[in-house]
Design a protein that fits this description.
Blueprint lengths: L2 E2 L4 E2 L4 E2 L4 E2 L4 E2 L4 E2 L4 E2 L4 E2 L2 E4 L4 E2 L4 E2 L14 E4 L4 E2 L4 E2 L9 E4 L4 E2 L4 E2 L4 E2 L4 E2 L4 E2 L4 E2 L4 E2 L4 E2 L4 E2 L4 E2 L4 E2 L7 E4 L4 E5 L1 H6 L4 H15 L6 H11 L4 H11 L10 H4 L2
Parallel strand pairs: 1-4, 2-5, 3-6, 4-7, 5-8, 6-9, 7-10, 8-11, 9-12, 10-13, 11-14, 12-15, 13-16, 14-17, 15-18, 16-19, 17-20, 18-21, 19-22, 20-23, 21-24, 22-25, 23-26, 25-27
Antiparallel strand pairs: 27-28
Helix pairs in contact: 2-3, 3-4
Length: 267
């Protein structure tokens, strides 16, 4: 049985899974679906065509699923899908997609969104991602699994963030960040690899060493174009999955270019 506080409003048409708990002064819209074991602490609003996965917990004053902050949005019935086992803390905002971005914002499983974090329209967020306090993602951003965003980090629309990347606090990111990369700065610059994160997540010493070598070959003082250096790395490490992740990321189509070390960025 679900538990709904007498002061909460659950609109007719909302779908509630087993053991959902809805605290004081929450508002759940008529097109919302809450999975089994979801908990809304208090003063939480879940609106629009939003689906919240099992065992996700949403803390007071979060606003989930209201219309995006996009002047091109014209009321289309776009969606927000949030996976299982997420923690969404106080004052977090998440918005559904738009016609211009595929009509869907998606959040994976096991993520942590600290207080006042923001996920804008049409973002695609992987699993086990962490946004620290006040981190903000603009529209159309793609984030890989296990990426970490420090407090007050801000990411430009259409940027891609690779898996296991680390974005430092108070960092503005205008270009794509390679998988396993670490960036910092008022305008982000690549400062190396997220070695601590790799070690914590069980990557082998050989994999980490291969990544170090590949990083130096791609972003060091080697001669030739970026494309030629990437080709050389791909040939040298054909069977090292993390290195191939980086190669595939760099070769993929993108409208934003890559965050590189300071000199390569022209700074």
């Amino acid at each position: 049985m679900s538990t709904i506080h007498p002061t909460a409003i659950v609109e007719v048409g909302a779908e509630l899974g087993a053991d959902v708990r809805i605290g004081p002064y929450c508002h759940v819209g008529p097109h919302v679906a809450l999975g089994a074991g979801v908990e809304l602490m208090s003063h939480v609003v879940v609106a629009g065509h939003s689906r919240v996965g099992p065992r996700t917990r949403i803390f007071p004053f979060a606003s989930i699923g209201h219309q995006p902050q996009d002047l091109k949005y014209m009321g289309e019935e776009s969606r927000l899908e949030i996976g299982a086992d997420n923690l969404i803390r106080e004052y977090v905002t998440m918005h559904p997609g738009t016609r211009g971005g595929g009509m869907l914002t998606r959040v994976g499983d096991g993520c942590l969104f600290m207080a006042s974090a923001h996920v804008a329209h049409d973002c695609q967020i992987g699993n086990r991602v962490i946004l620290a306090n006040n981190a903000a993602l603009a529209g159309h951003i793609v984030v890989g699994d296990y990426a970490f965003f420090g407090g007050q980090a801000a990411v430009h629309q259409f940027v891609r963030i690779g898996q296991h990347a680390m974005i430092g606090g108070v960092t503005g990111v205008e270009r794509d960040v390679i998988p396993y990369g670490m960036v910092i700065g008022d305008r982000a610059r690549l400062t190396g690899l997220n070695i601590v994160g790799l070690q914590r997540r069980g990557f082998s010493r050989d994999e980490i060493q291969a990544l170090r070598t590949a990083y130096q070959m791609i972003f060091g003082e080697e001669p030739g174009t970026l494309a030629s250096r990437v080709d050389e790395v791909a040939d040298r490490f054909p069977d090292v999955r993390p290195v191939q992740d980086v190669i595939a990321f760099i070769r993929a189509d993108s409208s934003r270019g890559l965050v590189q070390p300071k000199a390569a960025n022209g700074g």
